[in-house]
Amino acid sequence: MSWTDNRAGRLASGLAPLLLPYLVLFCGGVMLTICQSFGVFTPLPHVGDALDAYVKILNDPAFFSSFGFSLGVAMVSAFCAVAAGTFFAYQVWQLPAKLANAALIYKIPLILPHISVAFVVLVFWSPSGILPSIAHSLGFIQTMQDFPNILYSGWGVGMVLAYTLKGTPFAMLLVLALLVRFDVRQIQTAAMLGASGVRIFFSIVLPRMAPAMHTSFIILFLYGFGAFDIPFVLGESRPGMLSIHVYNLYFKHDLARRPEAMAILTMMFFFAVIFIIAYAKTVQRLENGVRKL
Amino acid sequence: MSRRGTIFSMMMIVLLPSLLSFALPARASGEALLEIPFEQIQDQARGTQVRWYMFGGWAHVNTWVDTYVAKEMKKRHDIDLVRVPMDAGVFINKLLNEKAAAKQTGSIDLLWINGENFKNAREADLLFGPFAGSLPNVKKHVDPDSITHDFGFPVQGYEAPFGRAQFVFEYDTARVQNLPKTIAELKAWIMAHPGQFTYPQPPDFTGSAFIRHVFYAVTGGHEQYMAGWDPDLFAQKAPLLWDWLNAIAPFLWQKGRTYPKDSAFLDTLFARGEAAFSMSYHPPHAQNLILQGAYPKTVRTFALEDGSIFNTHFTAIPFNAPNKAGAMVLADFLISVDAQLSKYIPENWGDFPALDMNQLSVKDRKRFQSVDLGAATLKPGQLAAVAVPEIPAAYLEALEQGWKEHVLDR
Hints:
The structure holds 2 protein chains of 2 kinds.
Chain A: H1 3-37, H2 52-58, H3 61-94, H4 97-102, H5 108-111, H6 114-125, H7 130-137, H8 157-179, H9 184-192, H10 197-226, H11 229-234, H12 242-252, H13 258-288
Helix pairs in contact in A: 1-13, 2-13, 3-8, 3-10, 6-8, 8-10, 9-10, 10-13, 12-13
Chain B: H1 3-20, H2 38-45, E1 49-54, H3 59-77, E2 80-85, H4 88-100, E3 110-113, H5 115-123, H6 136-141, E4 149-150, E5 153-154, E6 160-166, E7 168-172, H7 183-192, H8 205-218, H9 231-248, H10 263-272, E8 277-280, H11 285-292, E9 299-302, E10 308-316, H12 324-334, H13 337-344, H14 362-369, H15 380-386, E11 387-388, H16 393-408
Parallel strand pairs in B: 1-2, 1-3, 10-11
Antiparallel strand pairs in B: 3-10, 4-5, 6-10, 7-8, 7-9
């Protein structure tokens, strides 16, 4: 056996404790999901064509509205979280050292589970919640019912609020990690040469923060697109998030519909993969046109 | 990765399930249990542990199982009862996976189950039996005609009766005075009071039951559906239901744009005063919540004159239960007069007995009659007067799917 073969073999056996669970659990799970979506290995013998589940789903306009809605909620909340996270990170970075230490409280939502953040939003914004109570006692509204209808109004606002609340400190964390290594003299030089604060931010700081922003956007977007806990508490019936739809199909309907649940999961998985590739390609193309600092 | 590494990991993928499914020695071979006398089963179950998987969302029911049932099982049969909280849909999936992995010795001894989950379990051949006919308390106290079907699906002895449930509406006497008595009056009430009524989104258990009540009422009664699934009949009748539900939708909570996710959510809306009515498939539910302090003392229940659906809930034994003998002893104890009576007391649970009162001794019947159900719970006579049976499961599935298409996504 050649030297390189030996090395690869050693590498593989060294990585085996990591690779095995990955292969067995993750790949096995994905394979089984794909198989069941085609009606193979289903709990009940599958009658009909392998593609039945896909045909049924792709002919259902409700699926596309759910898909678009999930996409929209994930996009908006990831965008808001990254924008707010970047803004706050930049502000915190500019603070004097003492205050910057105090600003570490921004990390608190990071340790809260998603489900707690969902309940925080629920407690604050529901028609009998804290914000309507405050508005009422301050005399802004006549009765608690006059408070604008935020949750369960059909637009996913509650979920966007919760994801943004949870995602902002995450984006801050990633962006700050890049900023602390940033050479402040670049800004000082630009300022001496007469650049405005806005110009400095967009021409010097933003390109520097971009990789962290892209990473946090992808992570937050894909999480928001497929996650279950926040929609379970704050989700609306229509169009409904895909994750809730899959949960209902899997646990609450006839076993004969298992391939449909699995087909949706399969499509979500491949969508996520395609999204990451497309996003990375786009970012790469955009950055090739920009002069590196 | 080198070829050797690939082969090694592929072998592991193939071997791992069989390595995981190591078989424990079984105490009794399953089918033989159905032949031997029950005393022998009781002897065999002595000193063992029984794991009962059941819905864990009701604190008072959990307490009843952990205290009364566990204590009596230890005292009477020297059996250690372990209650495992799990939704029925979840343990069915667990069993499906175990079946697919050919796991002969599972971890579940007894299930609390009925309806679609029973149908799913039977169709996938996940249950042991028929065992219900071997249980002395079923033979002595249960009317065999009352347990032939579960949501229209033949029981055939694969589950033992455990309790009876019936659908009621809940309201606050301090808030609603003129109660609707029929489905038609309910519609008028909803339209006269916009934003104050809603129902849990099917396929939630309670919301699904609510639309079946409307289905019966607006299509001319339940009798026509009892013969089993008839697609033509469904296609002809279902639009009446969609029309009714779509007509009230703009007058519902949140203008019908969204529905409560489950009955617990509706209970919260009701308790907070955002909804004027709640509903439950469990007659003592409102009384339980009053006792817990979640509902005001002025809450009462009522049933509509068009009919109120009842069903029986059951216990069943999985095909790979490690302790089938113990499971049979527990299932038998649960349908005993003592357990059914204890379960009937609202402070414990308030669930209605699945026994045939005519087959009880006069003394036992008196014990049931003397139970104080609480002010909020309807009397068994009032409920029996409007009781109508559940619809066959195929209709149920079609109604839930149709609701999504014709009402939610309209």
